[in-house]
Amino acid sequence: MLRKLLRFLTGRLFISVVLITAQLAVLFVIFAYAQNNTLWIQILSTLSIIMTLVVVVRDLNPAYKIGWMLLFMFLPLYGGIFYILFGNRRLNRRLRARLEQLNIVYAKGVEGGAYSDLLPMRALERYSNTLSRQAQYIVNITGYPVWSNTEVEYFPSGEAWLVDLLEELKRAKSFIFLEFFIVAEGEVWDAILTVLLDRIRRGVRVCLMFDDVGSLFTVESHFDTRLRALGLEVVAFNPLRAHLNSRLNSRNHRKVVVIDGNIGYTGGMNIADEYANRLLRFGHWKDTAVKLKGDAVWSLSQMFLQLWAFSTGKSENFASHRPTITARTDGFVQPFSDNPLDDHNVAENAYIQIISMAKRYVWITTPYLILDNEMLTALKIAAQSGVDVRIITPHIPDKKYVFSVTRSYYRPLLDAGVKIYEYTPGFLHAKMFVSDDRVAIIGTINMDYRSFYLHFENGVIFYGSSVINKVSADIKDTLAISQRIDTEFLRKRKWYSRLMGLVLKMAAPLL
Known about the structure:
This protein is α/β, with parallel strands linked by helices. Helix content is 48%, strand content 17%. It contains 20 helices and 17 strands.
């Protein structure tokens, strides 16, 4: 017991919390002193005015601007300092320049050899000119192409994903890349680590990248150091720093596994027991994942290597990780990533394109529903145009304050004709779009501000693939065990719950 206490008191988490708390205390002391000092009042007021003008002229989402305007209005003395500390949504210039440099390396890798073949895009244009425009948008902004020669497999649960993943990991011969927002010590991690250590003994390179803040409460201090001692290459992405800064907002929310460049996985899954229902925290955990085999895995490898090089500062031979097998074509596959360092909301725009192009239906699953005006308008217009728009959210939340904000969006959506359901068996973590039996997205992207504006995210768009019918069938099954929300349900909610949702809704863009 004493050893655990000492480990906690000397651990990175405790020290960081103490130092950040001390910095906040200094800020409050300064604020208290400033209230009684005319010069400081003038300085802080001028700073808030300047920051207000900065927010107005910057190319920002209107909801984000409104959130800061409200802060400036209610805290006219201190709003400017808060914006300087937390309002900058980008990493510093040096890190941004580094990522842009890696974008050039990535572009050269795609242009070289057979991987510059435009035949899949031309075939997609013949299949659907409308869908090819969406694919071309992704290509133009991110550089990630459309692929054929790719087999796909859909997993409607974390349990099914884990079984398949372990079997494929056991067959790895050259390298394994793992990238997750959360790694939690437990049964799932132990099972994966056992296989990884066996592969390392057989000469396989194993690289693990996890988000430092995402895994802050799920692994012990020096987790990465212990794994390096076992032979893994490990990166804790954007490590927690013991000082106030906006870089803490830029998290790596992606989930990617690549095996030998030939097998790839992505979806909502993290490495934690609840994702495979080995631990029941919020009822039954509903999640999904997809497996790629063949050419499209090259994009997942590029995603990983780009952020790995960005985080380690070391060069990687991208070309040596290309696929080495030929796979059967199952429609068109387009993996893509989105990052908070550029000026493009690729993930949100990909969702909006699907909504806008839908003719019959758009079905959506998301754990969080915190919408900006663009997304809210697109959903309402689609429903009002006769498109069957359905959204499934959790009934048992993992974060109650986020759940309150999610429910605050139900009324305007219901009034427009959107059908809303809550997954009653527990927590729904799957992030999926499917429309008209022709297009689907599976990935890591929540329908909230953090995913759209702050996080590194990834997804896969499927055009004319067998996965699309499997996703729609799974959503039908999920709808059958979900509760449909109506205006009567909203009317019966406690007044304080509705009030809390509305208050938090105004602050949502800043959280």
